[in-house]
Write a structure and sequence with these properties.
The complex is a heterodimer of chains A (about 220) and B (about 240). With about 220 residues, chain A is α/β, with parallel strands linked by helices. Chain A has 8 helices and 10 strands. In chain A, strands 6-7-8-3-9-10 form a 6-stranded mixed sheet, sandwiched between helices. A 4-stranded antiparallel sheet of chain A has the order 2-1-4-5, covered by helices on one side. Chain A is globular, with a radius of gyration of 17 Å. Chain B has 9 helices and 2 strands. In chain B, strands 1-2 form a two-stranded antiparallel sheet. The longest helix of chain B is centred in the C-terminal third of the chain and has 32 residues. The chains are: A alpha/beta (about 220), B mainly alpha (about 240).
Amino acid sequence: MNKNSFIQLCDISYKIKEKILFEEVSFNLNLGECVVLVGKNGSGKTTLSKIIMGILKPAFGTVKLLDKDIRDYSLAERGREIGYCFQNPEKQIFNPTVKEELLFYYRFTKQKEKDYTEITKFFNIDHLLESKTLTLSQGEKQRLALAIILMLEPKFLILDEPSTGLDYNNRAQLYSIINRLKVEKNIGSLIISHDKALINSCADYIYRIKDRGIEIERQV
Amino acid sequence: MNDKFDPRTKLFVVLITSTLILVLHDIRMMAAVLLFQFIFALVFKAKIYETFYKLRRFISILFFLIVIQSIFDNQGNTILAISNITVLTDQGIIKGIAYIIRLTTIIMSGAILVTSEQSKLIQALVLIKVPYDLALMSSMGIRFLPLLIEQMKDTLTAIQLRGVEIEKQNLRDKLSIYAYIFTPVIVSTLKKAKSLSLSIEMRAFRLYEKRTSLVKLELANIDYYSMGISFVFAFGIVLTSFL
């Protein structure tokens, strides 16, 4: 195991009904590295990300988080280690206001509320704290989704199509955020995307889903 | 999809069994109706196991309802009491079981109806004089139900991934967390409804008074036999129970 290896996939096989999506897929995901996962529509990119998070159970093989089977951790423990951003950010926004959304975790735990000033400035949502989450634009929702997962200070991020629905400026901002997290906080990431600009700006590796397996390509 | 049976036959069986299950009070008769519907569900190749497997999380709630039923129903002999408060009575258990049978019948009715293709089901409803708009809306409702369940599951996962251990919360907080699930579900349902209605309008819905249909339904002998058996069964149950 690489000294930075955070997540390990060991011989993962998965099938939906009779269709085999993955056969004996193995790879590592490291801290401080950005991996972009690409593949055709329906090739299983989101499914693979859910397998990594332990939301879906593979037919064979194991996913290890810090050398321990991911399913031995509760969903909450996994969420504290790996920040998972759904393809549709609306799925993870369920509070009436931005501020309540950011403090959701502290409402149900006995921990002291964390200061959100830095993070909201980082994502440029500090002026939206009292705004209703329903009225946010797609770009604001995307940034809020990233902010709420980073409030838990995860060591790794899995982002499913994070640049969808973002305009040019918001995309550039997203690339800069991913790179800053990687460089400044050593946060690793697996990003599902077809966005070439994102690949060029952020990716250290490209993992391509092909023929039920993964082709790894180092980005220069 | 199993197309051996006309959707009208399935509608007839569902209508008879679900009506009987609502008007009957005798638990043996209700069990007979459930068994009758179960046999037809097998004949129609309904995915009974898959349907109930998806609903397995609600089993504990069902048993909880039996207990609640008993607490608020003082009739019958007390089976379990905690410091003068009746928790379980024999009548309460019977009512609880009746409730489970009714719910099972309704769930199985849904499983039977989804064995028909959506277009055929709409056509069947139109043929039994249900207005086309209503038929379309009800079939859309059936189609969107699994998507709503998926959305609820995703939101529950998202809540847990936010670091909140639902299992470790007290009952009040647990209920409060579950309430959060409904916001994204309601929002996405309203959005879906809005975009669906727009797209239907864009496709010139109701442009002509009379709609033509590619699907032509015809009742075969097997449909007449099935409906006949259902009618005789219903008649027998009504005679035994009410006369």
